[in-house]
Automatic annotation (TrEMBL):
Keywords: Signal. Coiled coil: none annotated. This is META domain-containing protein. The lineage of its organism: Bacteria, Bacillati, Actinomycetota, Actinomycetes, Micrococcales. Residues 1-32 form the signal peptide. It comes from Cryobacterium arcticum. Residues 42-114 form the DUF306 domain. Pfam families: META. InterPro entries: DUF306_Meta_HslJ, HslJ-like_sf. It comes from the Bacteria. The keyword Signal applies.
Length: 121
């Protein structure tokens, strides 16, 4: 009888652990939301919980789907229209990864260089 109880307790504990880990590894909730102010000539980005994103580099629209691993959001391939816009430095279209730091999303190039920050107010 004790052996059967131990098996049931182990199965329940294992199921709870797997459920907790699955929630942590697949959730994009720390990244979900709108980042940036989106004023004229300013970049903004909206990231959904499923990893899809859309926004603007301040001039050109962009959209795609990324993934979350730990504390890093990795941008997948994204579609963007590229046109020249006077007075705008389009850096968001160079995004490779991003991390949340308080109320800010810090965006990095593929070489790990920080290229910009978007606030979430």
């Amino acid at each position: 009888m004790t052996n059967g109880f131990a098996r049931v307790a182990f199965v329940i504990t294992a199921a709870m652990a797997v459920s907790a880990l699955a929630g942590c590894s697949s959730s994009g909730s720390a990244f979900a939301g709108t980042w940036g102010h989106g004023g004229e000539g300013e970049p903004s980005l909206t990231i959904e919980a499923d990893g899809s994103f859309s926004g603007t580099d301040g001039c050109n629209p962009l959209e795609g789907k990324g993934t979350v691993s730990g504390d890093t959001f990795t941008f997948g391939p994204f579609a963007s229209i590229t046109q020249a816009c006077e007075g705008v430095t389009p850096w968001l279209n160079l995004a490779d990864t991003a991390k949340v730091d308080g109320n800010a999303l810090t965006v990095y190039r593929s070489d790990g260089t920080e290229i910009g920050t978007l606030d979430n107010d």
